[in-house]
Amino acid sequence: MASVTLKGIGKTYPGDVVAVSDFNMEIEHKEFVILVGPSGCGKSTTLRMIAGLEEITEGSLYIDDKLVNNVPPKDRDIAMVFQNYALYPHMTVFENMSFGLKIRKTPRSEIKYRVEEAAKILEIENLLERKPAALSGGQRQRVALGRAIVRNPKVFLLDEPLSNLDAKLRTTMRAELAKLHNKLQTTFIYVTHDQTEAMTMGTRIVVMRDGFVQQIAPPQELFDKPCNLFVATFIGTPQMNIAEATIISENSVTYLEFGNNSNITRIALPDWKGRKPEVLQYAGKKVLFGIRPNDIHAEKDYISQHPEQLLEADVEFVELLGSDSNVFIKISGVEFISVIDSKIHMESNSKVKLAFDTNFIHIFDIDTEKRITN
Ligand code: ADP
Asked: To test ligand 1's pocket by mutation, which of 34, 45, 189, 194 has the most ligand atoms within 8 angstroms of CB?
């Protein structure tokens, strides 16, 4: 059993470089937590502090109930898997996997048993006598994982472990890692800059920016209720559409109004969203609203069932992707991207009727960029 608790954790590098500020989180046993954010936001520094490879300048770190700020890495009962695998080239797979156990003076029979067990889990039993040079990227990655598994650690720390693999292998390994987590029933803390990896593997995701935690939530909640504009546009591809609008309250209906004097579009918000006090307090004021490309609909059935959501759009460009198309549209001069089933024929430079699923419109304060409503 291992929980990891971060209380007010911060890191300042020499030269007053603040890499991480006031990180608070309780990671429970068996969670698969992902730290995600753009390059330089402090993910690796946080992971390295948990590993004990980086000194903690502020706050307290607990593994289970034990304060470990000053406990050396080897005594923290954690295993770290790095981006570059760090395998010893002159050793066989077996030797690479057993090295850590050997220096801990584990009995030989126990080493053999643990390496074989780990190799079985990772399906690399037939590679144990090979050297790393004779392995593919995916196989090396498994060996690096194997080396961590044999130690039977309380916590696995993984720093961008898939970033050296090609796109196809990354997709396969993503699923494998999720399965591995299920099998091992151990706490995983995983760093990536790739929001798809975060969304597909994590039980909870931590979105970071400039050293600060923005939001901590399960994947679906992060997608459905991003707490601010940064999270809203960081999670999801294509990115959420964002536009400026004015909130109008008229005859007990709340609208978003955008465009210019000669060409204005009004979107009526459903009452459950638009009549909330936190939205109504913005009446007459400018806000930012967001809608995900998949929440803009062109299907006949949807459109006929939601006539109140219909909008006229100019199709600027259609990008065929196979089963879906990215359709670049303009409404009252404002650009949006919608993702539409490719079976629905759309032509560039034409006019179409589309429906915005207003239940999924996100509204943000224009100054603080914080979410206004659920
Ligand atoms: P990420 O993993 O999200 O890409 P890092 O944790 O590596 O980000 O870095 C966070 C910030 O700390 C960056 O601004 C980076 O330049 C800085 N940084 C990282 N390592 C050091 C170091 N050893 N000395 C000084 N600054 C560092």
From this structure: 45
